[in-house]
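lol forgot to send this yesterday, sorry. struct tokens for the thing we talked abt
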């Protein structure tokens, strides 16, 4: 399978994409705006992932819908987002989802009639011709559930490349309303022949090129950097580390929280005593940004309050820290000796 492989035909089923024709023997145009392209190794890696997804997706549909279903990979292409959207029919199901931890938004697209057939089978129907209309409030949760399970199969298929956590965002019926990227953004589009019972269509998955391509490079990604680029990256890293080390952050020393009723809080007056659940032998938590990174006992240093950082208490270990006040006595003794 090559990068420019396409699956066009004269008798398209509803929802199929309009693709360019086959390769010609003459010169091929070169787009200087997209100098980075998928190599044969990248295409092969994606082909393995998408073929695994196709097998898992077909099994999911067959078992969930109790209807014979088949999914087969047809092509893998590198396009612009505008080219991809322009090739989709309307109305169609455009399910947008995130691909954490990678940035960007991906798309799972298939025909609306196929979605209606899937819902018909889930509700015990025979399938067959379906009406061309938006999904109802009852049908939409059923489709959401099916797509969520489909994204689980996509996560499984890409485990060898990247640990994705895909999550559904929204569904659109008009591709022009799907704002998953800028018009000039490069995307990787995989096309599948999808059959659910007697309903056939062309399904597609659109992934952001900029997010997937570094993962396809793998350990070879550093090899494409020049010496100047590597030096610039290292200098930027040093600058970031130096900036973070010198940045002031707020640090607090906290007692263990205590629960109170709203009525007790409203009735507090000067002089009231609020008992804490913190034991006198338990160190306090040193916290920044709600993250506990150390433990300390309170005291004083000169005329200022201070705390002494102590080892973190181990589970089941009995605390043996100094009680409050000993830190101040130690500091005063040290000042006297000096």
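and heres what i got for the seq, position by position
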């Amino acid at each position: 399978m090559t990068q420019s492989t396409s699956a066009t035909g004269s008798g398209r089923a509803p929802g199929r994409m309009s693709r360019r024709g086959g390769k010609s023997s003459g010169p091929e145009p070169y787009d200087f705006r997209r100098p980075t392209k998928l190599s044969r190794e990248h295409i092969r890696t994606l082909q393995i992932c998408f073929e695994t997804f196709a097998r898992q997706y077909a099994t999911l549909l067959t078992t969930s819908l109790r209807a014979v279903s088949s999914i087969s990979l047809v092509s893998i292409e590198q396009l612009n987002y505008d080219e991809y959207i322009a090739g989709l029919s309307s109305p169609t199901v455009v399910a947008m989802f995130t691909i954490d931890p990678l940035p960007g938004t991906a798309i799972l697209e298939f025909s609306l009639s196929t979605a209606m057939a899937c819902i018909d089978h889930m509700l015990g129907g025979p399938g067959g011709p379906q009406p061309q209309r938006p999904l109802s409030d009852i049908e939409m949760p059923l489709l959401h559930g099916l797509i969520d399970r489909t994204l689980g199969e996509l996560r499984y298929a890409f485990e060898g490349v990247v640990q994705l956590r895909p999550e559904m965002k929204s569904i659109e019926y008009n591709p022009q309303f799907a704002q998953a990227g800028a018009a000039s953004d490069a995307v990787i589009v995989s096309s599948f022949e999808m059959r659910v019972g007697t309903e056939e269509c062309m399904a597609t998955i659109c992934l952001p090129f900029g997010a997937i391509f570094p993962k396809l490079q793998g350990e070879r990604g550093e090899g494409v950097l020049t010496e100047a680029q590597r030096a610039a990256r290292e200098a930027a890293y040093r600058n970031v580390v130096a900036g973070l080390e010198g940045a002031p952050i707020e640090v607090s020393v906290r007692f263990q929280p205590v629960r109170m009723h709203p009525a007790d809080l409203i009735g507090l007056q000067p002089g009231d005593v609020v008992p804490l659940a913190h034991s006198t032998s338990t160190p306090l938590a040193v916290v920044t940004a709600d993250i506990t990174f150390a433990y300390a006992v309170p005291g004083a240093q000169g005329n200022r309050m201070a705390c002494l950082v102590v080892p973190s208490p181990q589970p089941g270990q009995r605390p043996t820290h100094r009680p409050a006040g000993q830190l101040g006595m130690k500091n005063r003794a040290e000042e006297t000796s000096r």
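The longest strand covers residues 69-80. anyway ping me if u want another try
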